[in-house]
Design goal:
Elements lengths: L1 H7 L3 H21 L2 H4 L4 H8 L7 H10 L1 H15 L5 H19 L3 H28 L8 H64 L1
Helix pairs in contact: 1-9, 2-8, 2-9, 5-6, 6-7, 6-9, 7-9, 8-9
Amino acid sequence: MFSIIQAAGWPIWPLIICSIIALALVVERLSSLRAVRVVPPKLLDEVMSVTRSNLPAPDVVSKLADNSILGRVLASGIRAVVADPRINEDALRSTFESAGRAAVHRMERYLNTLGTIAQSAPYLGLLGTVIGMIEIFASQSPSGSNPSQLAQGISIALYNTAFGLIVAIPALIFYRYFRGLVDQYTLDMEQAANRLVPHLLRFTRERNNAG
């Protein structure tokens, strides 16, 4: 491996750094975007069961917010109803939307960096290719070419082109995969909020009728 890095020359080091960063981001996102940490399958049903007759205590709502990203979104709606027992539907939906935007931002964390690496790695490989070509042309002289310099130029050109693609292709695949997960989770959270809104509005109607 070291011989390949040595043959590829200094242009391969930015690609190696990009590959390490991309690997770290992929591992982190694979852990953070697991369904159990974002949208646990039975969480909404549990919330609706707990809030069937009464709004939960603050400590229960805090535990819900710490449960997952979806839990944080649902907890924001419950807190809004607790803070304003006469809240209307538009205001409640606005609360969920704000929490949803924050949740999407959290799920998209590091994705722009991963996408940038996927796009820039081929160009870094191309840079190595250009430098290799310069080495090849520099090996030419009126008295003949320098074989060692010619071989060095070819190595720089080929290794950097290949390594740029090796970094870019998996990074792009994982970037698209994570984007798809975020889109699906966003839809799941939107549907969960839409189900919880009329459920929570029962408490506001009861307060309004009592008033």
